[in-house]
Automatic annotation (TrEMBL):
It comes from the Bacteria. Belongs to the zinc-containing alcohol dehydrogenase family. Residues 12-365 form the Enoyl reductase (ER) domain. Pfam families: ADH_N, ADH_zinc_N. This is Alcohol dehydrogenase. The keyword Ubl conjugation does not apply. InterPro entries: ADH-like_C, ADH-like_N, ER, GroES-like_sf, NAD(P)-bd_dom_sf. SUPFAM superfamilies: GroES-like, NAD(P)-binding Rossmann-fold domains. Keywords: Metal-binding, Oxidoreductase, Zinc. GO terms for molecular function: metal ion binding; oxidoreductase activity.
Amino acid sequence: MKASVLRDVKKGLQVEEIRTPRPRTGEVLVKVRACGMCHSDLHVIHGDIAFPLPAVLGHEVSGEIVEVGPGNEHTGLEVGQNVSGAFLMPCGQCSACSEGRDDLCGPFFDMNRLKGQLYDGQTRLFGLDGEEIAQYSMGALAEYCVIPSTSVAPIPDNVDPVAAAIIGCAVLTAYGAVRRGADVRHGESVAVVATGGVGSNIIQISRAFGAKHVIAIDVADDKLEAARALGATHTINSTKEDVREKVFEYTGGRGVDVAFEALGRPETWQSALAALKDGGRMVPIGLGAGVQTADVEINRTVRRSQSIIGSYGARTRHDLPATIDLAAHGIINYKDIVSQHYSLENVAEGYDLLAQGKILGRAVVDMSL
């Protein structure tokens, strides 16, 4: 099969022929229809986060199941189903998974995110000569990928099979932040700092959960215009306006109940913290490049009883079907968030534009191109 392989951060992604993978126990083989392009991939592509090379990236995917491995008798997964695959792939066996905390799955972090392996300690990707190739999540920048059955869910016929790729990260991460991290309640006020693929979905899901004010904060006017179309009640360009001043103006001098940070940079952390009311919750979602830190004003955080609640992904086995249901019932507009389509051969161009902040919403690799 063809795959976009990262061998050297100086050379970037290059399309190669590698072996088509095969599923093992508790896994399925998916013929990729589309793969979303996420900032988290950029950290590996640029060498800011250590990951074994060579590797195949791509961690939000849609496609068709073409082979089902053993041990799937009670999963309901069948050849021919269209599915969405989630980036956070719980092993289903560790203590965190046993407690329903898929987002804290130890083997996922220790084996997949550090070593590029699945849960038998091996990758499913190999070069034509047998060379091992690490996989970042399922490694979906390829014509086929193997995914643990814990991490896929069927998509109904009324869900767009290409745009459905973004459900497994951009939508799932947003849902986890709103539902699990912040537990947004009806009538609360929300700020969303950075309105890309994840932030765009936080806006929509917050409105669906009954947020009264949803204030979108970004540095690009075109992204803020798109945020309004998705349900933001107010927008702030942080390069032109004082974030704290404008947020407090829009909320009657109180600040927001919840501020989401969706980029992973010190300056966006500062914007999110500046927006909070007394007793408010700041929910960081974005991953930083390498080891980054952000300043927190200790006395203000303590005296004003503010909380910082990290949120990584969601509880895949429960929340992936829930996000698909939101898409199927038109509660979220996932299709318009997908603004650009790239072929596998042109994927490096898309990531370059993403790094420059020039992708509105989310771009996808469309295998039909």
